[in-house]
Every structure is written in C-alpha cells, then in structure tokens.
C-alpha cells in the first residue's frame, strides 16, 4: 500500500482528490493538509511514501506562507526518501525548473484525469520521475530566468508595491542596493518599470 499525504489549500479539491485516489486498491491517503506549513508538520508525523502538493497554497494574512516547492524542499530535507509530486493550475515554466532543482519528482497540471495522478504517484514511489510533456515543452521554449537569485527575491518583495525602504528592511539590504537590483531586473527583462518586471517574471514563474 502506498501511503499518501495530500496538501491543497482548497478543501473541495483536497477532499475530491483524496476520494478519487482512495478508489485505487494500492493507494491510501493517510493525511491531508491545507497549507505548506501543515504539510511539513504532517509529513513528520505520518511519514508518507508520497506527498502530493498544490504548487500555490496561500494563507490569509501571511505573505511568507511556503508554496508547494518550499514545502517539498523542507519535507525532503527531513526525509530524502519520500516521493514528492506537485500539481498546479499555474503551469508557468519557471516553476518547473525550481521544482526539479528542489528534488520534486512529479510535476503535472490539475487538469489531468485522476488515473494519471494515481499512475504518477506509483511511478514516483518506484523511484521514477514524471513531468507533464506540455509543461516541459513550455519550459524549454521560455528558457531560464535571466535574473539572479537576489534580483528575483527583491522583485518578489516589490510585487505588492512596497516602497524601496520597506523592501530594503525586509531583504536586509541597503536602499541603494535594492534600487540597483530593481534597475537590473527591469533592464534584463526589457520592460520599462518594476511593475511590468514583476508581471513578466510572474507570468514565466521566475518569482
């Protein structure tokens, strides 16, 4: 029996997926989580064989809530043997690269049939990998992010329109350094301001 931890911030989707997976004779959903933090904690307690995570799991009032990739990274740090699968309704190319770099072994859209997800769980549990072909093709066509890690971090902090001084405080950088990173990001992305830079970077999954 393959023991599964299922994490999704939407209860309806979480329960529906659990019900569909449990129709399979060899799959058992042993725990459910509504956020990245809950998923990490539940993985420690239940020790699942495979963790299926929604890519984006926002928590109201918490801008720093971990997404599926960050949760997967934390889960794998505690138990490198667990299989991790990400499902997403946002198939942005940059997310795939980040997911694979974190050790995620399955990446697929939420639009796939339940039987495909079940097969991916089995494949990952057996030590294999699965990446949705369309998402992989989009990632190859888009290419890698031109942003450095620090530029991406600063751009993400700028997403809500925060002033430079606030971004500097949150990023533990000098205001001048923040301005330099924002200017570099704008130039690299070929846009006219940081708002356009954020929009383009988010569209491609680079932040």
Your description of this structure?
The structure is a single chain. With 207 residues, this protein is α/β, with parallel strands linked by helices. The protein folds into 2 domains: 2-141, Response regulator (Rossmann fold); 149-203, Winged helix-like DNA-binding domain superfamily/Winged helix DNA-binding domain (Arc Repressor Mutant, subunit A). Helix content is 52%, strand content 14%. The protein contains 10 helices and 6 strands. It has helices at 11-21, 36-46, 68-78, 93-102, 114-125, 133-142, 149-157, 164-171, 175-189, 194-203; strands at 2-7, 27-33, 50-54, 83-88, 106-109, 130-131. The chain has a 6-stranded parallel β-sheet, sandwiched between helices. Strand 5, helix 5 (114-125) and strand 6 (130-131) form a beta-alpha-beta unit. Helix 2 (36-46) packs parallel to helix 3, helix 4 crosses helix 6 and helix 7 (149-157) packs across helix 9. The radius of gyration is 18 Å and the shape is elongated.
Number of domains: 2
How many strands in all?
A: 6
Helix content: 40-55%
Shape estimate: elongated
Strand order in space, largest sheet: 2-1-3-4-5-6
Ordered list of secondary-structure elements with their pairings:
Elements: E1 2-7, H1 11-21, E2 27-33, H2 36-46, E3 50-54, H3 68-78, E4 83-88, H4 93-102, E5 106-109, H5 114-125, E6 130-131, H6 133-142, H7 149-157, H8 164-171, H9 175-189, H10 194-203
Parallel strand pairs: 1-2, 1-3, 3-4, 4-5, 5-6
